[in-house]
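Can't attach files on this board, so I'm pasting raw text. These are the components:
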Amino acid sequence: MADLRELYQEVILEHSKTPRNYRALPAANHKAEGYNPLCGDHFTVYLNLEGDTIRDVSFEGSGCAISKASASMMTQALKGKSRAEAEKIFERFHNLVTGHAESNGTEALGKLAAFSGVSEFPVRVKCATLAWHTLQAALKDQQEPVSTE
Amino acid sequence: MTSATNVVAGNFPPVAGLRSTFDVEKVRREFPILHQKVNGKPLVYLDNAATAQKPESVLRALDKYYREYNSNIHRGVHYLSERATQAYEQARAAAQRFINAGDPSEVIFVRGTTEAINLVSQTWGRKHLGAGDEIIISAIEHHSGIVPWQILCEEKGAKLRVIPINDQGELLLEEYEKLLGPKTKFVSVVHVSNALGTINPVRQIIEMAHRRGVPVLLDGAQAAPHLKVDVRALDCDFYAFSSHKLYGPTGVGVLYGKASLLDAMPPYQGGGDMISSVTFEKTVYNKLPYKFEAGTPNIAGGIGLGATIQYLNQFDWEQVEQHERDVLAYATECISAVPGVRLIGTAREKTAVLSFVIDGIHPHDVGTILDQEGIAIRTGHHCAQPVMERFGIPGTARASFGLYNTRADVDALVAGLHKVLEVFQ
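---
Top answer:
Structure tokens for the assembled complex are below.
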């Protein structure tokens, strides 16, 4: 089960069971919905953006272990970051889960590096990136729900 | 883990005498795709409700057509065309006998069940439906049994009414009775639910509609591979099924319709083959079934469907049903015993489908882990989102069985589910 353990690393399972920042954000000034129609994964991402800085970020919804853990760890990684930094982290994360990571980029991801196993499971990439696409939509104040299909 | 599986298996003795009459091992040998490894494990194919695998004889029929007599049908005077036409029409006759239709002209070849339903909604429906009229469907339709009627309703200002279900996934006939009224113009229901496996009481549904002169379409996509279908005994007005779920090729299926209804319907698509004469002033449509078959059809597919029906004809259908019932009963018993599992769809009359959820584990994760064990199941909403909504879940894991599945496949699934639990502890 080496491959499976690569995908379902302890930290991912732990976050999927007890997701952080799993709540609505009353002070949110940006939010967006993300939907994966094939799996039924559905998240709302809330953002409190102060100037260019992400003061707070949270999420709600339901999804598989990968999508939920990714959303949870994303909120931890992005709190206090600027828009540009958030975009950069997503780019690195995306490269990681699609198997295009450069070694120095992975290090910068910290705990998010646990998602490296996703690259071996191409159908799960959309699970790992759903919350991130939703976050991007929230940053852009996109009204239409995001879909990963 | 494995021992737990064996204990469950041991508690459920095989049905006496079954193996001597239906030789599943012989059947398995005829499906070449089953004999491979996936992720290093022997393939356990439990996604038959999505599409079934094809026996050697069907593969040979497709190959033979393209190698030996590929040509267009109903047109050529040459040898190859005559041979292809004959094979295609023989397939139609085989399909007619397979569902016990009265005449081959009542068997229209379409792309599949979805196109069959669209054909009826766009021809019969557009002709007969008006503002305020009602179409009755059920709460356990596949999206293909919902959307074509919604499109029609929107166009005509008509209304869709839905027969509700109970917590087991069975239609509430007393509610259906209440829905039937002077505005009801058409009833369209699944014979067997793809998401839950429920076998609907279609005879009663048809009888109740006919008492009010309302025609009924049955979506038989999930029924034709598992139950003996007799359209005349059912007295349904339309019956639709797909070849690819019936161990045949993709891209072809059948719409059966009573000749009296088909005759009175406008054509579906215009083009070649569906006409008997064309001038710029007037076109005279061809007779049945060609009126509904515009353009060069899926010739190889039709011939392949004929071959799959011929393949299935060797079996005593009761034995197939008995074998599949045995595997389903065994699976129901074993899967229910896996900790945290809840079955979705527990109708008394069921076939070939086992939908379930596991506490705290998303179906998608279940599917990925099983795939690592070489086990193919479907996860998600199964193109039946309203069913998932009814049960308050985003989706299920669904194991669906075919005539080549065995108790050993179920054992592998159970072992796989224990792996799932192990990963998620």
